[in-house]
């Protein structure tokens, strides 16, 4: 990891770049083909114990995003926010860790998000499907907050910079509160599962490398 200090960081490292490209291509396919093939339905993560659940969805759900709303209008916000966060925080982690380790971390965070989401659904009886890279991206955010806690971030509607450790912790608390309330259509426990998985992985990795990044 010390090479990060001496090598010019790549503003668009290969894994982050290719993940963004794949997600955008899948989203374009959803927008174009859903009316005929229900691509979103094939890729989404359905609850355990239902006929629609397939094990492969644990992986595919993190590459699909909301494509159209209830009025059949194309939805941009879901994929734009996720891909922006992946680029903004993921590029730093990939430059620090290298591409192979970052790819493993990202996919593991997404799988962890899916597992937590499925378990919470199973015990609460909430039978809606889930799509999106948000769980994997939350793992990236949690790792960034751990490794670069004092990095100052600028957040909309807040006139002063906020340190990463507080901004991302605040977002996690918000997810926990909203998940407990359960009055929206967002998979908050998938977000929390991704953040928890990412934090555990980076905590384990950091035990073998005591360097901290601020």
Description of the molecule:
α5 (99-124) crosses α6 (134-147), α5 packs across α8 (188-207) and α6 runs parallel beside α8 (188-207). With 214 residues, the chain is mainly α. It has a two-stranded antiparallel sheet. The model is unreliable at 1-6 (pLDDT under 50). The chain has a single domain, classed as Rhomboid-like fold (Up-down Bundle). The protein contains 8 helices and 2 strands, in the order ααααααββαα. The relative contact order is 0.14.
In the predicted model, the low-confidence regions spanning at least 5 consecutive residues are: 1-6
N-to-C span? 13 Å
Work out the helicity level. Answer: 55-70%
Query: Roughly how many Å is the radius of gyration?
Result: 17 Å
CATH topology: Rhomboid-like fold
Principal-axes shape call? globular
State the major sheet. Answer: 2 strands, antiparallel
CATH top level?
Answer: Mainly Alpha
CATH superfamily annotation: Rhomboid-like
Q: How much beta, percentage-wise?
A: under 5%
Tell me, rounded to a whole number, the average pLDDT: 91
Work out the number of β strands. Answer: 2
Class derived from helix and strand content: mainly alpha
Per DSSP, the total helix count is 8
User: How many domains comprise the coordinates?
Assistant: 1
**Topology order in helix (H) and strand (E) letters:** HHHHHHEEHH
Q: What is the level-2 CATH architecture name?
A: Up-down Bundle
Strand order of the largest sheet: 1-2
